[in-house]
Structure formats: C-alpha cells, structure tokens
C-alpha cells in the first residue's frame, strides 16, 4: 500500500490540512536516529537538487527535515537513500532496484515528489527557500 501517495492527494484537495502527513509523523517516531554524517550528506544533496530542479522546500521546514532524516536513515541501513515515504515489502531489494532511490524516477521525469521534499513553485505548500541548515533539522526534529 502506498500510504504517502494517498495522503498527498488528500492534502492537495484540502490545503488547510497541515502538510506533515501521518506517515511522516510515524516515520519520526519509528526510525532510529540516523548518523549525523548521513544527515549532512542528504541535507547537501537536497539543497543541490532543489536548485538544480527549480524546486523549493516546504514552507514547514519540519516536513523537509523529517524526509531528509528518513533518507539518511536508509542511507545508513541500506547503503542507498531509498524514499522514506513509502512502504516496501523488501527494502533491500527496492534499494538495489533503484526506482525509489532519491531522486526517484517520478521526480526525475515529472518533478513529482510525494514526500514534499521538492515542491514546484505552484504547489500550495512550497516555500521560497532551497536551503536548510543542520541546526534547522535538529531543531525541528529533536535529537539527532
Ligand atoms: S524525490 Fe522521490 S525519493 Fe526523493 S523524497 Fe521525493 S518522492 Fe521520495
């Protein structure tokens, strides 16, 4: 089941709903803390890719932070930044297949990021920033 896709559609139809999805909140609770090194790698990647793709971080940087930490956690545990906003029966197999390694194929081909990490300017939740500091990530997600 694709939890994130359904929650994003719900968000798209009701902009007053907070953009942090149920699945992202679950992700914060359920995951072990990723290494600071991997968080930094994924933070830099996210800034660079936002600039390169002409996309922006969410107006709520907490959303951005949670996704970056989820990517970092997968980088630690799987060796690849598998998208953290999906359910997988076999994470290792998905990571080696590559379709959902960030930036995933839907993002590369159509600028579709269902995690709300990379938002096109026309998205209701797009902010105007393409940078996020390690401190912002720490502050908005608690310990690291
Ligand atoms: S670009 Fe794709 S893999 Fe990366 S966070 Fe967004 S949906 Fe997930």
Structure description:
This protein has 144 residues and is mostly helical. It is built from seven helices and no strands. Iron/sulfur cluster (SF4) binds at residues 67, 83, 85, 100, 102-104, 107, 113-115, 117-118. Residues 67, 83, 85, 100, 102-104, 107, 113-115, 117-118 line the site of iron/sulfur cluster (SF4). This is Ferredoxin-thioredoxin reductase catalytic chain, chloroplastic.
Short synopsis of the structure:
The protein has helices at 3-13, 22-30, 36-53, 61-78, 91-97, 105-110, 134-141.
Write the layout of secondary structure elements.
Elements: H1 3-13, H2 22-30, H3 36-53, H4 61-78, H5 91-97, H6 105-110, H7 134-141
Helix pairs in contact: 2-4, 3-4, 4-7
Features:
single chain; 144 residues; mainly alpha; disordered N terminus; binds iron/sulfur cluster; ferredoxin-thioredoxin reductase activity; 4 iron, 4 sulfur cluster binding; metal-binding; EC 1.8.7.2; FTR_bsu_sf
Q: Report strand %.
A: under 5%
Structural class: mainly alpha
Helix content: 40-55%
Unreliable runs: 1-18
Q: How far is the first residue's CA from the last residue's CA?
A: 29 Å
Mean pLDDT: 85
From N to C, what is the helix and strand string? HHHHHHH
Rounded radius of gyration (Å)? 14 Å
The major beta sheet can be summarized as: none
Query: What small molecules does the structure contain?
Result: iron/sulfur cluster
Number of helices: 7
Report the strand count.
Answer: 0
